[in-house]
Amino acid sequence: MREPAPPHVRRGWIAAQAGLAVLVAAPFVLTALDRAWLLPTLTRMLAYGLGAAALDVVLGYGGLVSFGHGAFLGTGAYVAGALIHHAGAATPLLRWPVEIDGSLDALIAFPAAALAAGALAFLIGAVSLRTRGVHFIMITLAFAQMVYFLVLAIPEYGGTDGLMLPARHRLFDLPLDGDQPLYWVALVLLVGFLTIAQRSMEARFGLALRGARQNERRMRALGYPVFRIRLVAFTISGAVAGLAGAVLANQAGFVSPDLLSWQRSGELIIMVILGGQGTLFGPVLGAFALLLLEEELSAVTEHWMLVLGPLLLACVLFFRRGLWGQVVRAPAHG
Amino acid sequence: MDSLLLLEQALNGLTLGVMLFLMAAGLTLIFGVMGVINLAHGSLYMIGAFAGATVTARTGSFALGMLAGMAASALVALALELTLIRRLYARDHLDQVLATYALILIANESVKIVWGPQPIFLGTPEAFGGSVEIIPGVPYPAYRLAIIGTGLAAAAFLWWLIARTRLGMLIRAGTTHRAIVQALGVNIQALFALVFAIGGALAGLAGMMAGPLLAVQVGMGEQILILTFVVVVVGGLGSVRGAMAGAVLVGLVDTLSRAVLPVAVREVLPPSAADQVAANLGAVAVYLLMAVVLAIRPQGLVPRHA
C-alpha cells in the first residue's frame, strides 16, 4: 500500500502544473497582447531555470555546494557557440586528434554541449568530491576559475570580448530564428529534465544521494558506493547546465567569458536558495524571480546590487524555506 | 631564460606569495577558530586598499595610509562580526557562503558609489621608490623587497602571537577544543570578534601593499580571494603554517609559469596570439597545482592537526 502523499507534495504538483500551463500559454498570450518582445527574456529565464534545477540535484539533494556551475553553463554555451562560429567561417573546430567541423544542427550541437560540460563535470567532480564541506566549495570555485582562464586563452574565440555568432542552430532543417521556436526548445528541455529528475530523486538513485547527504557513514556501511553516486549526480548536473548554456548562446547570439565567471556560479546558487533547495521546481521559480528582480531593479537604479545584497542577506537569515516552500506551504527544510 | 631573470621572477613570486599569506592567514584563522568560511575576506582587502590610498593621497604619507587601511579593514571586520557573522556560526556552510557573498555585492557596489568605477592611483612610497642591487649589477625594485620584508615581519608577529602569548594559546585551544575553552570561562564571543578583526587587519595590510603594484579597483578582492582559496586548499585549511607553505608555493608557481610560458608559446604560435594564450595558460598553472595536491594529499600539505 502506498501512503497518500503529504498535502504540501500534492499542492506542489498542482502548482507545478499550473506553472506549466502558464508557460505553455505565455507565447500566445504575449503575442495577443502585443508583448511578444518579452519572449526572449522568458527564454533566458527558462534556460537559467534549467541550470538552477540542474544545480539543485547536486546542492539541494546531494548537499554538495558547488560554486563552479557557471563553468558548466559557460562550457555548454561556448561549445554551441563555437560550432556555429566554425560552421559560419567554414573552418574545422578541431584538427587533431580527429577533425571536427562546425555544425548548425541543433541535434548535434546541444548533445555536444551537454557532453562537453558533462565530461568537464566528471573530471572536476572526480577530484573535488574527494573533499567535503568548505573544501568542496572552494575547490569547485577554483576549478571554475581555471576553466575561465582556459577559455580566455583560446585566441579564436575573442578572449574577454566574447564571440558574436552569425546564426542560430537549426532543428530538423528549420532554423530556430525568431523568438518562438527557441522558447519551445527551452521549455521542452526544462519540462523533460524536471520530469526525469523528479522521478529519479524519488527512485533508488535519488534516495541514495539524499541518504548520503544525511549520513554518509551509514550509507557506506550499507554498501552504497557514495563517491560514485555523487560523481554520477555531479556529471549529469554539469551536462544539463551545459544544455542550458547552449540555449543561452542561441538566444543571445553571443557568448562571452562572463558566462563562465564566478558571479554566474554565485547567481545559480542564489536562484536555488531563493526558490527553495531540494525541490527542483523551486530553483526554476528562483531563476524567474532573480532575473525579474534584476530586470526591474536595473531599470530603476544602476546600483541595484545594493538592493540585491541586503535582500539576499535577509533571505539567508530569516526566509529559509524559499519561494517554493512558501507557495506549497511546506514544512521548513532541514 | 637565464638564471638572473629566474631569480628576479622568483622574487616577484615571493612578493605575491607574501600578500597571499596575509590573506590566507586571516581566512584560515577565522575558519580554524570559528568554523566560518568568509567570502567577504576579499572585500576587506579591497577596503584596506581604498581607505589606505585615500589617506595616502590626502596626507602624502604612505605609512599613515597603511595604518589607515589596516584600521579601516579591521573596523569593518569587527562591525561585520558583531552584527552579522556571529549569527552564522551555528549555520551550515551554505548559509555562510550566501551571506558573505551578499556582503561582496554590497561592498563592491558601495565602493563604486564612494570612489567611482575607475581604478584609483596609489604610487610606491618615496622611501622605496628606487631599486636595490641584490647581486652586483642586478637591480630590483626596493618596494617589492619592502613588501617581502613586511610580510615576513607580519608572519613572525603572527607566530609570536599564536605560539607565545595568552591570546594565542586561547586561539589554538579554540581551534581544537572550542566547547572546553568556553566551559573554562573564556569570553569566547570577544575572542571571536578579536580574531575576525585581526584577519581584517591582515587583509587590509595586503590590500594596501598590493595597491602600487596592481590596480586599486572594484573587484580586486575577488581576484585575490580565489587565489587565496587555492592557497588554503594546497596548504591545508585551518593551519597558519599551511597557509605559509601554500602561499609561497602558489606565488612562485603562478609567477614563474606566467614568466616561462610566453617564451615557450612564442616558439609555436604567432606573436599576436601568443601573449593572450600565454597569459591565460599561465594563470591555469596554480589550479593544476591544486589538483595535483588534492589528488595526492586531499587534506593539504600541512593539515591542521599535524
Give the C-alpha Rg of chain A: 20 Å
Stretches of chain A where pLDDT is under 50 for at least 5 consecutive residues are none
**Radius of gyration of chain B from CA coordinates:** 20 Å
Q: Please name the two chains that share the biggest interface, counting residues whose Cβ lies under 8 Å from a Cβ on the partner chain.
A: A-B, 42 and 45 residues
Structure description:
The complex is a heterodimer of chains A (334) and B (306). With 334 residues, chain A is mainly alpha-helical. Chain A has a single domain, classed as ABC transporter involved in vitamin B12 uptake, BtuC (Orthogonal Bundle). Chain A has helices at 7-32, 39-61, 69-89, 106-128, 133-152, 180-202, 204-214, 216-221, 226-252, 262-275, 281-300, 305-318, 322-328; strands at 92-94, 100-101, 163-164, 170-171, 174-175, 254-255. A two-stranded antiparallel sheet of chain A has the order 1-2. In chain A, strands 3-6 form a two-stranded antiparallel ribbon. In chain A, helix 2 (39-61) crosses helix 11. The longest helix of chain A is centred in the last third of the chain and has 27 residues, at 226-252. Chain A is globular, with a radius of gyration of 20 Å. The model of chain A has no long low-confidence stretch (mean pLDDT 88). By secondary structure, chain B is mostly helical. Chain B has a single domain, classed as ABC transporter involved in vitamin B12 uptake, BtuC (Orthogonal Bundle), CATH 1.10.3470. Helix content of chain B is 75%, strand content 3%. Chain B has 11 helices and 2 strands. Chain B has helices at residues 3-34, 41-59, 62-83, 93-115, 142-164, 166-176, 178-183, 188-210, 220-235, 240-268, 271-296; strands spanning 131-135, 138-141. In chain B, helix 2 packs antiparallel against helix 3 (62-83), helix 2 (41-59) runs parallel beside helix 4 and helix 2 packs across helix 8. Chain B is globular and about 65 Å long. The model of chain B has no long low-confidence stretch (mean pLDDT 88).
